[in-house]
Amino acid sequence: MGIKGLTIIGESINDSVPSTHALFEAGDIEGLLELARSQDAGGAGYIDVNVGPRAPEFMADLVRKIQEVTGKPLSIDTPDIEIARAGLEAYDPGRAGGAKPLLNSISPLRTEMFDLYKVRPFKPILLVSERVAGGRSQPCRTAEETCQAARSLIQQARDTGYGFTNDDFVIDPGIAPIASDAEGNLKRLIAAIEKIHRDPDLAGVHMSVGLSNFTVMLPPKRADGSPLKSPLESAFLTKAVPLGLDMVIGSVKRKYELLPENHPAMTCLNQVLKADGFDAIMRVRDFYS
Amino acid sequence: MPDPAELYDAILTGNAKKAEEVTKAALEANVNPSELLSKYMIPAMDEVGKRFECNEYFVPELLIAARAMKTSLQLLTPKLAAAGAKATGRVVIGTVQGDLHDIGKNLVASMLEGGGFEVVDLGVDVPAEKFIEAAQGKDGSIVALSALLTTTMTQMRNVIQALEAAGLREKTRVIIGGAPITQQYADEIGADGYSDNASAAVGLARKLVGTA
Fold first, then answer.
1. Which residues of A touch B (CB under 8 A)?
2. Mean pLDDT along residues A73-79
3. Between B64, B98, B125, which is nearest A282 by CB?
4. Fewer Cβ in 10 A, N or C end of chain A?
5. What is the mean pLDDT of residues B162-173?
C-alpha cells in the first residue's frame, strides 16, 4: 500500500480537524491516543501533534502520553514558540528509536524558532510559501521566489551554527486549495518542487505539503458517486513525487497511489495546469459535476 | 433583447459571458439598474448562498457565480452611482496583521459584494491603523476581520481596541472569521458577530445593518 519513498506525517491529531477538536474539547485523551495508535498502525512515518491555542503544558503532557502508545517520531505542529518549546522538551527521542522530532513549522517570520534546537535537536519543516521583502512578509507568487525563500531560510538555519544538515530540512512550498486556485498556485508549486529538487545546494533536503489542503472546499464525491478527493490528491502526487516531493502531511486512511496518465483525475489536473484564472476552477468543477 | 430575468440564471450558473451580455442589453434598453440589481442579481447570489449552505454548491460554484455577479456589477456601478443608489451597507474587510491567508477573506468579500454591499478590501497583513483609516468618517461601516493562524487571531482584539481608542467603536460593527475563530472567541474580544462561512457572513452583515 502507499507510494514508495513517500513518508506520511499522520494529520489526525490536529485541533482544526472538527472530530479531533471535539476530542480536545471533551478532554478525551484516550480518543486522541487512539488516533496515534491507528495512524501508527496505518503506516504513518510521523504523528503530527497540533493542540491549537492550548497551554504549552497541555502540549507537553500530550506528547508524553502519545509517546507511551507509539514508537513513531512526532511532528510538533504549532506556530507558537512556547507551545513548540514545551512539545520539544517533553519529546523523548529514546521512545522513537532515537529519531528527532519534526517541528512544523518555521516561516521567514518565525526564525527565532531555530533556537529551540538548544532545547531538543529537531528537523524543521520550513514554510517557504512566504518570503520577506522590504521588511514585510509577502506570499511567493513564482517558483523562483519560492526556491529563493527556501535557500534563504536554509541559509539562516545553517548560520545558527546548530549543525543542521540538508537531510534535516523538510521544505514546505505551500499547497493551496484547488477549489479556489484562480491564481496559478498549482503551477507555481509543481515548478517550485522541481526547482528545489534540482538545486545542487539543496541536494538531499526533503519536501512536504499539507495534502488535505489541496482538496478542501470540494464535495466528497463526483456526480457519478465516485470519490473525488483521493483521486485528485493521488493525481497531485503522481505529478509531484517524481519531481522530488517525498513527504506529505496527510491521512493514512486515504488510498494514495500513482495514477496512469489517462486516469480522469490526471486529465483534470493536466487541464488545470494548462488553464489560467477562473478557467482552472471551472475545470475542477467540470470534473466533479 | 434578452429577458433581464436571464441574468438570474446566468449568475446562478456562473455564466459570466451571458451575465455581461444580458446586463449590457438591459442597460441599452433603459432597464432601471437598481431593479436589475435587486430583482435578479442579489436574489441570484442569495440562492447561490442557500445552495452553498446545504452542500449543493461548493466553493468553485460560489466563486464562479461571484465572478459573473462582478462582471454585471462593473457595468452597473457607474449607472447606480449616477442615480444615487445606496449600497446595502459598507464593509471594510482584510486579513489581520502578520497573516497572509486570503482565500476565506476573498470568498467573504465576493459574497458580500454579491449581497449588495460596498466592499473595501484592504488585502492581507493589514495593520490595525489601516482598518481605522478606512472606517474613519464612514459611520455605520462594518469592519470584517479574517485570520487563519492562532498566533495572528489575537490581532483581532488589537483592531477592536484601536477602534475604541479612535472613538469609532460605537459607530462601527466588527465581524470576524477564520479557521481558528469561534463564537466564544468573538464574544471574548467583544466582536459584534462571527460566521464560519462566506454565505452566512452575508446574513450576519445584513442583520447588523438592519436589512435582514
1. 15-16, 52-53, 78-80, 109, 130, 136-139, 176-177, 179-180, 182, 217-219, 278, 281-282, 284-285
2. 97
3. B64
4. N
5. 96
Judgement on whether residues B24 and B105 belong to the same structural domain of the protein: no
Domain end call among B82, B111, B129: B82
Closest-CA distance of chain A to residue B150, Å: 6
Q: Does B96 touch chain A (CB under 8 A)?
A: no
Q: Are residues B115 and B10 in the same domain?
A: no
Is the Cβ–Cβ distance between B45 and B72 less than 8 Å? no
Residue of B52, B97, B103, B124 to mutate for A, most A C-beta atoms under 10 A: B103
Instruction: Say how many domains are in chain B.
Output: 2
The residue range of the domain holding B54 is 6-82
- Classified as helix, coil or strand, A216 is coil
Which has the closest alpha carbon to B15: B31, B34, B2? Answer: B2
Nearest-CA neighbor of B181 among B204, B158, B152? B152
CB pairs under 8 A between A and B: 59
Is B94 domain-assigned? yes
Predicted confidence band at A1 (pLDDT cuts at 50, 70, 90)?
low
User: Do B99 and B190 sit in the same domain of this protein?
Assistant: yes
ipTM for the assembly = 0.89
Say if residue B47's pLDDT is above 60.
yes
Same structural domain for residues B94 and B195? yes
Residue A233 is predicted with a pLDDT of 98
How confident is residue B13, by pLDDT bands cut at 50, 70 and 90? very high
User: What pTM was computed for the model?
Assistant: 0.91
Same domain? For B201 and B102 the reply is yes
Q: What is the mean pLDDT of residues B129-157?
A: 93
Instruction: Indicate which CATH number applies to the domain containing B77.
Output: 1.10.1240.10
Instruction: Determine the Cα angle at A196 with ends A191 and A200, to 5°.
Output: 135
Q: How many CB atoms lie within 10 A of CB A117?
A: 20
Mean pLDDT to the nearest integer, A64-74? 98
The residue of A80, A82, A141, A285 whose CB has the most chain B CBs within 10 angstroms, and thus the best one to mutate to test that interface, is A285
Q: Are B73 and B99 within one domain?
A: no
The mean of the pLDDT values for chain A is 96
Whether residues B106 and B202 share a domain: the answer is yes
- State whether B44 and B107 are in the same domain: no
Q: What is the pLDDT of residue A60?
A: 98
Residues of B in contact with A182 (CB under 8 A): 63
Q: What is the pLDDT of residue B150?
A: 85
CATH superfamily of A7-288: Dihydropteroate synthase-like (3.20.20.20)
With cut-offs at 50, 70 and 90, classify the pLDDT of residue A200.
very high
pLDDT score of B212 more than 80: no
Task: Quote the CA–CA distance of A154 and A124 in Å, as a whole number.
Answer: 10
